[in-house]
Amino acid sequence: MKKLLFHAGLLLIASAPVFAQKTAITLQTGSPASVGMSEERLGRIDKVLQEYADKRWVNGVTAMIVKDGKIVYNKAFGYDNVARKTPMKTDEIFRIASQTKAITSVAVMMLYEEGKFLLDDPISKYIPAFKHPKVITQFNMLDTTYTTAPAKREITIRHLLTHTSGIDYAQIGSKEANAMYAKAGVIGGIGVGKILLADKMKILGGLPIFHEPGEKFTYGLNTDVLGYLVEVLSGMSLDQFLRQRLFEPLGMKDTYFYLPKEKQSRLASLYSEDKNSGTVELMPAMRDLNGNFVRDYPNEAGTYYSGGGGLSSTMYDYAIFLQMLLNGGEYNGQRILGRNTVRIMTMNQIGDVAYDEVGNKFGLGFKVTTPEGSSFSPLPEGVFEWGGMFATTYWADPKERVIGLIYRNIWPTSRGELPLKYKVLVYQALNR
After folding, report:
1. Can you tell me the distance from the alpha carbon of 74 to that of 204, in angstroms, rounded to the nearest whole number?
2. What is the torsion angle, in degrees rounded to the nearest 10, for the CA atoms of residue 346, residue 249, residue 313 and residue 66?
3. Separation CA 64–CA 406 (nearest Å)
4. Is 140 exposed, middle or buried (0-12, 13-18, 19+ CB in 10 A)?
5. Quick one: three-class SS letters along 103-145?
6. What is the phi/psi pair of residue 384, to 5°?
7. Three-class SS of residue 62?
């Protein structure tokens, strides 16, 4: 299949959703009937989520549906702590992990709109450690040695936003990447204590990549690099930038890298899955993830701001963020992005590069549903979505003006079908 290489002036392949709101919508509670949804059919969600809780396939789960800016479903099932019979609550603060990526991507695009860079600029223009990348040609797992060849092109900011840079993931990537990054001290970025993003990203910049930039989709530490880019271009830590430029203007009051003491009691318990029974159990305080992983890392006083996975948040806060995007970049009287920036973020940015087996594509920070992909689920063309390692999932639908979120905090879990069922249950409740 022909590969799509990114450079200035390239025509991207795909149609894009239209973001047109005469008045920017802010979230409010509403009845299902007021936005053309069936309350009776939404009751089917209750039955499924309660079944998962009753059978201990989840300890607890929360779900939210927003239609036309109205919160028409916002419920919790099961327990935050099963042993103590502490009920799950809809305002729990969850480890959202890779849902951080969309937020960091928006931060990057805010700086793009200020003329700080162009999407096809090489990242080395701003972070010199990434200059003259090398591609691995052979890798020896016995001693983690490798041979390389010079890459044909530089890694661009667009490559990072689309995960086509050739950078893999530390700890959860390929076995070669796990070995190479561990040896170099490069990490995934959660539960890592008092280290700095800048230091690790400079090390990453000096390591080889796993394929030519622009030729494949490889989910990796790209958004952590982008988080450091935000720091370089803004002169602020990623934490400060997000707080001052995004969270406070939007009214996202419960989104943090590290929770303040007064909110630490609201952190959702993190469960794991018993491999034999398939039921959940409370995760120990420490769990080895090719290195120490602190279960309650959001309650630590950390200094590492992982743009790819470090945030914790609530469903409500994340729904605000998604509604801002559905509004074309505006919320709460605050213009965060221009509507055409939102448009390019949520359209195919990888051209002919393969993403998944059903033909969906990737934008600037989001998976994007294509016409081909829409035939495999109720999601129509143009939906943008992602999720997090600890079993949180979101999507936003510009056509139906629907936002869906379903949050658990379980790792690992074999119940990956639950978000797929939830999407079916949401769309079957639409009347008009």
Report:
1. 41
2. -60
3. 7
4. exposed
5. HHHHHHHHHHHCCCCCCCCEHHHCCHHHCCCEEEEEEECCCCE
6. -120, 145
7. strand
In 3D space, the residue among 136, 76, 33, 86 whose CA is nearest the CA of residue 282 turns out to be 86
Amino acid at 414: S
Q: Tell which residue, 391, 420, 411, has the closest CA to residue 98.
A: 391
In one-letter notation, the amino acid at residue 8 is A
**Considering only CA atoms, which of 319, 326, 318, 321 is closest in space to residue 346?**
326
- Rounded CA separation 196/228 (Å): 10
Separation between Cα atoms, residue 416 and residue 389, nearest integer Å: 11
Tokens of 172: 């959860």
What are the beta bridge partners of residue 272?
281
pLDDT tens track, the chain, 432 positions:
444 444 433 334 444 565 655 678 999 999 999 999 999 999 999 999 999 999 999 999 999 999 999 999 999 999 999 999 999 999 999 999 999 999 999 999 999 999 999 999 999 999 999 999 999 999 999 999 999 999 999 999 999 999 999 999 999 999 999 999 999 999 998 888 789 999 999 999 999 999 999 999 999 999 999 999 999 999 999 999 999 999 999 999 999 999 999 999 999 999 999 888 899 998 876 554 444 568 899 999 999 999 999 999 999 999 999 999 999 999 999 999 999 999 999 999 999 999 999 999 999 999 999 999 999 999 999 999 999 999 999 999 999 999 999 999 999 999 999 999 999 999 999 998
Q: What gap in Å lies between CA 97 and CA 205, rounded to an integer?
A: 23
The two three-digit tokens of residue 189, written as one number:
């970025």
- Report, in angstroms and rounded to the nearest whole number, the Rg of the chain calculated over CA atoms: 21
Q: Which are the contacts of 293, defined by CB distance < 8 A and separation ≥ 6?
A: 190, 191, 286, 287
The one-character DSSP state at 375 is G
Question: Amino acid identity of 261?
Answer: K
Burial class (CB in 10 A: 0-12, 13-18, 19+), 159: buried
Which residue has tokens 């080895």? Answer: 288
Strand partners, 132: none
CB within 8 Å of 5: residues ≥ 6 apart: 153, 214, 215
Tokens of residue 33, six digits: 């009937």
CA dihedral 322, 327, 332, 335 (to 10 degrees): 100
